[in-house]
Amino acid sequence: MAISLEAWDFSWDALGGAALIALARMFDMSLAVLRMSNTAAGRKKSAWIIAFFEALIWVFVVAGVVQKINNPVYAVAYAIGFASGTFLGITAEQFFARGEQVVRVFTHHGDSLASELRTRGYRVTQMEGKGRDGPIQILFIHVPRKKAQQLPKLARELDNTCFIVIDDVRSSSAASRSGAMPPAAGK
Q1: Per residue in 90-147, pLDDT tens?
Q2: For residue 1, is it within any domain?
Q3: Crossing angle of helices 72-96 and 12-40, rounded to 10°
Q4: In sequence order, what are the residues at sequence separation of 6 or more whose Cβ sits closer than 8 angstroms to the Cβ of residue 12?
């Protein structure tokens, strides 16, 4: 089916319908990103609820586009909503930043870096390792996702040659989340 220039309907009705399609698609794609984030984190209930509303909106949007497929304005609105919704969903997911992360810092200044991080309230586990250039210290810092992005800047202020890896935590023990640590052996 060839689309001619006459098929492009720029009437107020068509533009209003296109705006609704774009807005609905933006909302449903934002939900899709949040659903995928919840699914990856193992949050089944919230993923199910989000998926329900995502699918419901998607059905109505696709029905609106299919009914008026002869007008390319609706297809463009659908694509704009899809792309914008993806961007908005990622932005919302980063804002909420649910979950926990482990920040691993590979450094030649482990003792001083770990000490400074501990004085700032971070719980640091320190290990010895062997790197390309010899002995290295590896620091593990378990933090809420909202705080994880602050650590690389802080670590680089203290050691500008450190290497940093940030990993998502799927689950962890209750002791680490509450801040309570089990007593040390023999105490």
Answers
A1: 998 888 777 888 899 999 999 999 999 999 989 999 999 998 888 999 999 998 888 8
A2: no
A3: 40
A4: none
In terms of residue numbers, what domain contains 161?
Answer: 100-178
Nearest-CA neighbor of 76 among 152, 149, 160, 15? Answer: 15
> How far is Cα 49 from Cα 152, in angstroms, rounded to an integer?
35
Name the domain count of the chain: 2
Give yes or no: residues 38 and 63 share one domain: yes
**Helix-strand-coil split of the chain, %, nearest 5:** 60, 20, 25
Q: 93: Cβ–Cβ under 8 A, 6 or more apart, which residues?
A: 33, 34, 37
Entry field: residues in the chain: 187
